[in-house]
Amino acid sequence: MKQLALIGLALLLAACQPTGPVAQSGGGRAALKVIAAETFLADIAQNVAGDRVKIDSLMPIGVDPHGFEPTPTDVAKIADSTVLIVNGAGFEEFLAKLLENAGGQRAVLEASAGLTSRRLHDGEIADPDHNGDPHFWLDPNNVIKYVENIRDGLSAADPAGAATYQVNAEAYIAKLKELDRWIADRVAEVPEAKRLLVTNHESFGYFADRYGFKIIGTVLPSISTGSSPSAQQLAALIDRIKATGAQAIFLETGTNPQLAEQVAQETGSKVVTNLYSHSITNAGGPAPTYIDMMKFNTNAIVNALK
What we know:
The protein folds into two domains: 2-21 and 28-180, Nitrogenase molybdenum iron protein domain (Rossmann fold, 3-Layer(aba) Sandwich), CATH 3.40.50; 187-305, Rossmann fold, CATH 3.40.50. It is α/β, with parallel strands linked by helices. The protein has helices spanning 2-15, 39-49, 72-79, 95-102, 140-157, 162-187, 205-211, 231-244, 258-267, 290-305; strands at 34-36, 55-57, 83-86, 107-110, 196-199, 214-218, 248-252, 270-275. The longest helix is centred in the middle third of the chain and has 26 residues, at 162-187. It has a four-stranded parallel sheet, with helices on one face. Strands 6-5-7-8 form a four-stranded parallel sheet, with helices on both faces.
């Protein structure tokens, strides 16, 4: 069934490609209506688009993409778009139905295209309901590929802006490389033996792989936040935390902490509840951009473990 669904989605995406570049508006701006599925993706894309194109987000700030259900207003927004940017790799489970309901033609850019899903390490449990981990963006080096894909997609839709997108992409990639060095320096403050991650669901694998953390387990045994653990799975997680001495359980904002608090009571670990992994904040919040989001999460993890 999954294979048939993926084939159907591929056909939908192919059908949504525009027949050629769009017209240009005045003032040096492209007459593109570009929507990114998630808020963090909209911020990444805006850095590539610069002043030439305004990138709108399909999802509001704070919404969990795993549980997102498009409204008729969202469908109308997509129907009016010329470019839709998605994370891809199966992350947007609502996408096929949304595109079918919206109809029309648009370019669909898969930001993660060309990236390979991480391999599970010893002790990590595969999610039987999902093929691979789509949370590529939690390693900024993967976001370099996002930027390149977005640059190329916008350039195809707006050839007159290709030089602008190229310059903007190069500048943002330099910032991503600087972010990678900053994270590595902060993580170096945590002794290797303490770099143990327990999270709400399976999302921080790429972060862990890049910066030398070990995934001890997750409260929800899934790539998605829509699953529920069995009593046996919770008991196994408790045993693993006790055996490894993992100091903290990290939850995203908006997550119900009840199960994590139960595990913490059994293990003596603490619960950190304020990570931003699927959404940035508004301008007045602690993580208004993707780079700010990554720095905030890194500081929260380092401060809890060092």
